[in-house]
Design brief:
Layout: H1 2-16, E1 21-33, E2 42-50, E3 59-64, H2 69-75, E4 82-84, E5 98-100, H3 103-113, H4 124-142, H5 147-169, H6 179-189, H7 191-195, H8 208-224, E6 227-229, H9 230-248, H10 253-258
Parallel strand pairs: 1-4, 1-6, 4-5
Antiparallel strand pairs: 1-2, 2-3
Helix pairs in contact: 1-9, 3-4, 3-6, 4-5
Length: 259
């Protein structure tokens, strides 16, 4: 797979780095025979995919032995657009990009903070959760618009919700170490990147695109469990890249591979 498909993977990467928006995520992979590492240690499979920009979608996997943000910095060298990720600080190492946050991650944090018993209606976590839901409901309505019109509507509809949310956030005093505290801290730390979607209609409200792109790999891992060697992990990354990009473009994967 490496010898045959690497040139195609490299061509796909060339196209990906010219996109306006790239989503990124990473997941665990175990490699049994890797120099300087125990067989039980964790390595990482990274995924990078193009955003909803109207261009032909590209999904690229890259194997790396660690979760260091240096890998993302090196992979994305030459890319200067919008980078949409979760809150992992490793992506801060990527220079000359505009970071875009993930409201899905924040919404999940509020959901986890909601009380298991008693009144949900009066809980601060429920209020935060509902603010996130309002933003997603607006996005659903703007789905079919062009990026230019979506940006205008976000300024009119989403911006007031955002302003109300940040004002409300200042009134919340969560218990230290609580789940609600985690959600509030995440919001404050990610404020700039959580607001970036107002700047361009091509930016999405969440990083679900990358999370969905890496899901077939995560499901596959439940079956095959690990890679034997580093070269095997790299071959796996290339094969997943070709197959998932073919799927994203609505192609018959088998016929595409034959071609």
């Amino acid at each position: 797979a490496i010898d045959w498909l690497l040139p195609l993977w490299e061509t796909m990467k060339f196209h990906l780095l010219k996109q306006a928006v790239i989503h990124a995520d990473e997941s665990v992979i175990q490699v049994l025979k890797e120099e300087g590492k125990k067989p039980s240690s964790e390595s990482r499979m990274w995924v990078y995919c193009s955003g909803n920009t109207g261009e032909a979608p590209v999904v690229l996997f890259e194997y790396q032995p660690t979760r260091s943000g240096e890998h993302a910095r090196r992979f994305l060298e030459g890319f200067h657009g919008f980078l949409q990720t979760d809150g992992y600080s490793g992506y801060n190492k990527v220079p000359e990009v505009t970071r875009c946050g993930c409201w899905s991650h924040l919404r999940r944090k509020y959901q986890e903070a909601m009380p298991k018993s008693g009144s949900l209606k009066d809980s601060a976590a429920t209020v935060g959760f509902e603010y996130c839901n309002k933003l997603f409901a607006i996005e659903k309505d703007l789905e079919q618009l062009s990026p230019e019109k979506r940006k205008i509507q976000r300024q009119e509809q989403s911006k007031p919700v955002l302003e109300a949310y940040w004002s409300w956030l200042e009134t919340v005093n969560p218990l230290q170490g609580s789940k609600l505290g985690e959600a509030i801290t995440y919001s404050v730390n990610q404020k700039a990147s959580l607001c970036t979607f107002l700047e361009d209609g091509r930016i999405e409200l969440s990083n679900n695109r990358a999370e969905n792109a890496i899901r077939p790999f995560v499901l596959g891992r439940k079956g095959w469990l690990f890679a034997d060697t580093k070269k095997g992990a790299q071959a796996s990354a290339i094969a997943y890249s070709i197959v998932e990009t073919a799927k994203a473009n609505g192609l018959n994967v088998y016929m595409y591979l034959v071609h």
